Amino acid sequence: MFERLHVMLVKEFLELRRDRWAMVRLIVPLLIQALVFGYAATFTVNHVATVVLDLDRSQASRTLVSHFAANGRFDIVEMAATQQAVTHAIDTGRAVVAIVIHAGFAAKLANGRSAPLAIAVDGTNSNTALIALGYVSLIVARFEAEAMAHGWPVPGETASSGADVPLQERPWFNQGLDDRWFFIPGVIGTLTLIQVVSLTALAVVREREVGTLEQIMVSPIRPFEFILGKTVPFFLIGLGDVVLVTVFGVLWFGIPFVGSPLVMLLGSSLFLLAALGLGLLLSTLARTQQQAFALNFFLVNPFFILSGFAFPIAAMPPVLQWFTLINPLRYFLVVIRAVFLKGVGIDVLWPDLLAMGALGAGMLALSVLRFRKSLD
Amino acid sequence: MNPAVRAEGLSKRFGRFVAVDRLDLSISKGEIVGFIGPNGAGKSTTIRLLCGLLKPTAGRACVAGFDVAREPDAVREHIGYMSQKFSLYPDLTVRENLRFFGGLYRVPRRDIEVRMAQAIAMAGLQGREDALVQTLAGGWKQRLALGCAILHRPPVLFLDEPTSGVEPEARRHFWDLIHQLASEGVTILVSTHYMDEAEYCNRIALIDAGRLVAIGSPGELRRRELGGALFELECSPLGAALVALRQVPEVIDAAIFGDRLHVLLRQPAAAEGLPALLARHGIVAGPPHGITPSLEDVFVQLVSRPHAAVRA
Ligand SMILES: Nc1ncnc2c1ncn2[C@@H]1O[C@H](COP(=O)(O)OP(=O)(O)OP(=O)(O)O)[C@@H](O)[C@H]1O
Ligand SMILES: [Mg+2]
């Protein structure tokens, strides 16, 4: 019963071992991509060119400005004297953010009334601007807290509405506001998906191209024996990927791993099931390795974009939101981020785990069904 | 006794294209049948239908006593197949390939070593057991592929152009192996493009545009399929002679072969009168003499004429 599976596995591992560059090809791109994502794919902005117009010239206003100057996220490039100078600085691109403190800021703050503070951002780089706006509100909030501590009479009721800037919500479990903490766990899922899907699809299609697939199909092998033989090695490689990038993220980027490794293992296994199913399904659609490669590219990109890796699913149009429901990466990102940063367990994550299991089973079943047919 | 391979009305379409068209075929145990036909005739498709790799659009096939559609697994256990593409693992060694295919067919553990050694000996690969297959030359590769295909001792063997691209010496060696297998009772259907190989078969099945055009032993085909007697005639000028001869009712066909004519006659007796007949057109002709047609003559004749019913 296990004889055929055994020889399939032996053959796969022999081929892998004989391919001297296989390990390099598997590991190096993974680490490079983890590095690139870790350093480049970040929402953190630093050194935003800022112009300040202080019309109040009070101690309070100077303190607020010094908060901005000291923060490091903002570089105050100009202390403007007039509103025109502010507009000019933004228009010419010398500054991205303008902070205008109106006259009476200190007085109103002292009276416990809403203190007028205007923030203008250069909308042409809306990403940076929005993120910068987030920091502005943080700094203002801190300033308020300090103002209270320093004895400026700020009534508690108005403290939170003291500035005209709505406080942006901060991610709860990412106190440092370090985007790497958010991205590296996501990178694990994304890179594993890309690697496992393409490895599986290419391996099957290569056998089809070489002709060995036909030679195998003419033998009394059962589809599940072939499919197990073909997928178990890539399952192990996928698990290796997960472990590698996890260890890398923890050791290199210092990302905390709060949760249970067992939940992570379970989540990864279910996710890999779906990835393998996807790869096999893809291999039944492609005749040549080139086609498989193109299909892989065509498929994995939407899976990536519609996963919640970077773009919030809740902000997508409904049709695309529905699509994310059949995207295993979506569920895995939830699981992996939750395990990494929140440390929650199966009691919370079971719907996502279940969804991945169902998707994996469905795709594997479909690929087994399509398998015999694909020879015609 | 039941035939080892039997096809009845076997057909396969790809979309609207008919690749195999109502093919009937019966091969008895221990027979070597050669499958001959131009490119795209449907040889590979027929073989893949008989192996159960493709589902027929119509008709049925029995191989080694099992119905291909209803008992595909039993058929798979009892056939060996060499596909048109060379299909061993190039990055595995000779021994690793053999062990892999032995395992796929679950060759009993106590037999596998002996059979692997036999396959290695048959391929002439003693001492190169641990060489990667990609480093072997064509003839060795093909013999090893044959060795892999018969590790489980199948009673029926399908070989799809096993000798294409192999040098003549290695081809002869390969055919010795085929004959040896047949003498042990293995039934073999082998497709080929080489006419000289057709002569090595017990029977030849000629297939063209998906249809079985003729089947019989090489001798039978030569004698019967031309539908007349072939004569060679020296004459001059050739062109005028050709035109004149084609108008004679006794002449089925005439064609220029080098500096002479090949004339196919309904009755051998009509040959005597030809020089006189040509003389009336002012053509000088020598005495005609009967010749044995080559298989190539037969195939060219059969494939070019509109398809009549199969002659068996
Ligand atoms: N999977 C397929 N889909 C569509 N058409 C096919 C398929 N397989 C074969 N054909 C077509 O069927 C015809 C017969 O092909 P087949 O391979 O059986 O020919 P063949 O006699 O083996 O030719 P060759 O001598 O070149 O090997 C060809 O025209 C081929 O293009
Ligand atoms: Mg062919």
Q: Brief description of this entry?
A:
The complex is a heterodimer of chains A (376) and B (312). Helix content of chain A is 67%, strand content 6%.
How are the secondary structure elements laid out?
The complex is a heterodimer of chains A (376) and B (312).
Chain A: H1 3-18, H2 22-40, E1 48-54, H3 59-71, E2 74-80, H4 83-91, E3 97-101, H5 105-110, E4 117-121, H6 126-149, H7 156-159, H8 179-210, H9 212-217, H10 223-252, H11 261-285, H12 289-305, H13 318-324, H14 328-342, H15 346-373
Parallel strand pairs in A: 1-2, 1-3
Antiparallel strand pairs in A: 3-4
Chain B: E1 5-14, E2 17-27, E3 32-36, H1 43-51, E4 58-63, E5 66-67, H2 72-77, E6 79-82, H3 94-104, H4 109-123, H5 138-149, E7 156-160, H6 168-183, E8 187-192, H7 195-198, E9 203-208, E10 211-216, H8 218-224, E11 229-233, E12 235-236, H9 238-246, E13 251-257, E14 260-265, H10 274-280, E15 284-285, E16 289-290, H11 295-304
Parallel strand pairs in B: 3-8, 3-9, 6-7, 7-8
Antiparallel strand pairs in B: 1-2, 1-4, 4-5, 9-10, 11-14, 11-16, 12-15, 13-14
Helix pairs in contact in B: 3-4, 3-5, 4-5
The site of magnesium ion has 4 residues of chain B, from helix 1.
General form of chain A: elongated
Total of domains of chain B: 2
Q: Give the strand order of the largest sheet of chain B, numbering strands 1, 2, ... along the chain.
A: 6-7-8-3-9-10
Could you name the CATH homologous superfamily of the largest domain in chain B?
Answer: P-loop containing nucleotide triphosphate hydrolases
Largest interface: A-B, 23 and 30 residues
What is the average per-residue confidence, as pLDDT of chain A, rounded to a whole number? 80
End-to-end distance of chain A, in Å?
27 Å
CATH class of the largest domain in chain B: Alpha Beta
How many DSSP H or I helices of chain B? 11
Q: What kind of assembly state do the chains in view correspond to?
A: heterodimer
Q: What is the CA-atom radius of gyration of chain A, in angstroms?
A: 27 Å
Proportion in β-strands of chain B? 25-35%
Order of helices and strands of chain A: HHEHEHEHEHHHHHHHHHH
- Whole-number total of structural domains of chain A: 2
Which strand order spans the largest sheet of chain A, edge to edge or round the barrel? Answer: 2-1-3-4
Q: What fraction of the residues of chain A are assigned to beta strands by DSSP?
A: 5-15%
Q: Taking all residues together, what is the mean pLDDT of chain B?
A: 89
Which ligands are bound?
Answer: adenosine-5'-triphosphate, magnesium ion
